[in-house]
Design goal:
alpha/beta, six-stranded parallel β-sheet, Rossmann fold, globular
Length: 367
């Protein structure tokens, strides 16, 4: 099979010379050849870097290819970042944010598309504030399949779509868009991602006594989502920004599916709430890098039987989670929420179950 690439004499000589004595040199030579000597085909697609597994495998001498599957697997792994085939049938998903250069979403979603052999590609667009409506018009005009929306556009984007999911309406912002024939529908997958992470950890909030710390964006997304999808027996929200806390309690209370109370976060209110809690949801930035040594919860309030979730994922294992695990609690990392919301987005765009192991591997390699 011809993948549209010819190895240089020098590269082939390296392969023949080192293929039995030094696997790493073989791998490096092939990957370098794929990256440096790829040429466009007449239909405008880039070939052969498009299918890193089969293309790279075919470049090995036949005796090595048949005898050394480990080398081929290594080449496939190294080649993951090479862009898959893109043609006129490729569906485009994108990230809207400002800035977006730090985002891992393109790597995560493109690896997932490739793993399932789906004709999708995911790109990142740096969209300045005030330009979101125009960008959404572009999505309609060009037929993008979907969007991830991140800071600072989650509210502005909600006002620019044609329909907003009920949960996202309650949260007050969106982070996901699905384009069905030019009609854009907004969703919020953050809270659903957290709920999925809790369920995966056998800590479903339904019917439980839940304490939430914080009243900002993460707290709102999670509180509204669990109140609608898996209502606790009681939800107690403790915060320090009292007007924000009051609005959140009111909005969640309108769901009418759980008993909710709010109070200022003090040592006394925290102790009283945790003494009867089944699940603690930490949704404040306390403990985030670079202040990893901070925690809102004294370790003496942690006990076996209490499940503890921390929305902070940098560091991955916060002080709160370390102390929770030491006290015998079930500790649930913030990375699970990040992955959970990505699973929800992938499934909304594709209609296929997300390849969770692939997406997790990509993120964990980058942390």
């Amino acid at each position: 099979m011809n993948f549209g690439i010819e190895l240089s004499d020098r590269a082939r000589a390296n392969l023949n010379r080192f293929r039995k004595r030094d696997r790493q040199i073989v791998v490096d030579a092939i990957v370098a050849q794929l990256i440096e000597e790829t040429t466009p085909t007449f239909d405008g697609t880039v070939d052969p870097a498009v299918r890193t597994g089969s293309a790279a495998f075919s470049l090995l001498p036949s005796d090595v290819a048949s005898e050394d599957s480990e080398t081929c697997e290594t080449i496939q792994s190294k080649g993951r970042a090479i862009m898959p085939r893109i043609d006129a049938k490729t569906k485009v998903c994108a990230l809207f944010g400002h800035p977006v250069g730090h985002s891992r979403s393109p790597e995560i979603h493109n690896a997932a598309f490739e793993a399932l052999g789906l004709p999708f590609v995911y790109v990142a667009h740096d969209v300045e504030s005030g330009q979101v409506a125009k960008a959404l018009d572009g999505v309609r005009a060009m037929g993008y399949r979907g969007l991830s929306v991140t800071i600072p556009h989650k509210v502005e984007a909600m006002h620019g779509v044609d329909e907003v999911d009920e949960i996202a309406q309650g949260i007050g912002c969106i982070n996901t868009v699905v384009n069905d024939g030019g009609r854009l529908k907004g969703y919020n997958s953050d809270g659903l991602g957290a709920l999925g992470a809790l369920r995966d950890a056998d800590a479903d909030p339904r019917g439980k006594r839940v304490v939430m710390l914080g009243s900002g964006g993460a707290a709102r997304a999670i509180a509204v989502s669990i109140a609608r999808q898996s209502p606790p027996r009681q939800l107690t929200i403790l915060g320090v920004v009292l007007d924000e806390l009051e609005r959140l309690v009111q909005d969640v209370g309108e769901c009418g599916r759980t008993v909710i109370e709010g109070a200022e976060l003090t040592p006394q209110s925290l102790q009283a709430a945790l003494s009867r809690a089944d699940l603690l949801l930490h949704c404040s930035p306390v403990g985030m890098h670079p202040k990893e040594d901070a925690s809102l919860v004294p370790p003496e309030l942690l006990r076996p039987g209490l499940a503890v979730f921390d929305a902070v994922y940098n560091p991955r294992r916060t002080r709160l989670l370390k102390e929770a695990a030491a006290a015998g609690c079930r500790a649930i990392e913030g990375i699970e929420m990040f992955l959970g919301q990505a699973y929800v987005q992938f499934e909304l765009w594709t209609g296929q179950p997300a390849p969770r192991d692939v997406m997790r591997q990509v993120l964990e390699e980058k942390l």
